[in-house]
Amino acid sequence: MSHPELNGVVVVEWAPNKVRAFDAQSGRWKSGDSVASVVAPGSSVVIAPSRRVTYLKSVRVPNVPPSEVRQILNLQLNQLLPISASDAATDFRLTNDVTSEGRLAVVCAVKSELLDQIEREAKDAGAQIKRVVPAAFGSALLAKERGLRDCAVLEYTPDGLALDLIADGELRYSRLAPDVSSEHEIANELKRTFAVAGTSTDQILAAGGLPAREATQSSELGSAEMLAHVNADALGISLVAPHVIAAREAKARSSKARLAVFSTLAAALIWIVVFLQYADASRKLSEISAKQQIALQSATAIKNAEQSKLNASLQKQQIVERAFHPAQPAADVASVVSNCVPSGVWLTGLIFEKGKPLQIRGSALSSQQVTEFMQRLGNSGRFRDVKLAFMNNAGSNAFNTVQFSATAHVIGNLPLVDKTAGGTR
What we know:
The chain is α+β, with helices and mostly antiparallel strands. The protein has helices at residues 66-80, 112-125, 137-145, 183-197, 223-226, 242-277, 282-323, 330-340, 367-379, and strands spanning 10-15, 18-23, 28-32, 44-49, 55-61, 88-99, 102-111, 128-132, 151-157, 160-167, 170-177, 204-206, 217-218, 345-351, 358-364, 383-395, 400-410, 417-418, 423-424. Strands 3-2-1-4-8 form a 5-stranded mixed beta sheet, with helices on one face. Strands 11-10-9-12-13 form a 5-stranded mixed beta sheet. A hairpin with a 6-residue loop joins strand 14 and strand 15. The relative contact order is 0.09.
């Protein structure tokens, strides 16, 4: 099959110390440990972060313009993904799936430090980055190329077996299963992926020449190769580090401020010229002076308006910084709870929302083990008001178990809005 290329673009599937590049012109792969080891100087590259370093989440958002969706997602990112917005390069794709609950968006993110490392490697290689698109999105392009709107895409990558779920032509879920080689293991990982994603399909596409009995279709092309296709531009995905976005916004604000100052100076200069030209005509001078005063006031109003916008942006930035630097991130809370689980107890649910008590559900072999678990939580120093909501016996022919539910306040977990004071915390 031919590969429509994008002006000699090279697709670089990137993971730390594990990089491979696909040259659309030659149709060949090259592996190395950095961007410089796989691309030639002067190359135009599409960076495809591997699934190992990419965070992906499908979420409903209000059916509003993309600029407003971006603001909403920035405020909710640390609730959607185990990564802070201040530490992540993020982007999203709005799908055509619109319901009463809103439009479905596919959110992707990569840690900023990794994106900075990629940019340094590209600079060392003398390569020009055209865009940064997670490799998993190539599976959606491959499914479209094969005429599949709903399918699971299986592919071996340097990091392991990639499993991407496509629904209505859009990437919805992606995971990586390392150390998978046999047909039996592939089948088990596919079932596990369907169970985690809460969906299934009977259409299985084996990509990159992967041999799999489960596959209903196969393709020699891989997902990363599809990012060299002309249709890749239609994805509209391009990850940019937060500090780069902040620099662009600062430059735009600076340009507006300079424009306001120049307008003021220009108005003053015109006033002086008019004064010198019509010094002998007091009436005309008064009229022109009044006109220039209006122009000066208009320029000052523009400057004040821009300053107000700047102040409002700074206030929003402060809110975002407070929101995305919690005392205990969700990943830490989950780790502490897991470390407190004694033998004979297993967790079935963990709900952690900003400003709300932590909710824990689980099962145990005995009530004594539940009591031990509650004591460990209380003694951890990370929670207060640890309470057992309920504990019920649940028996079967094989053995008896205890189902329980507990709540605890995560110390430092403050809501974004203080409802008592009416302000932001």
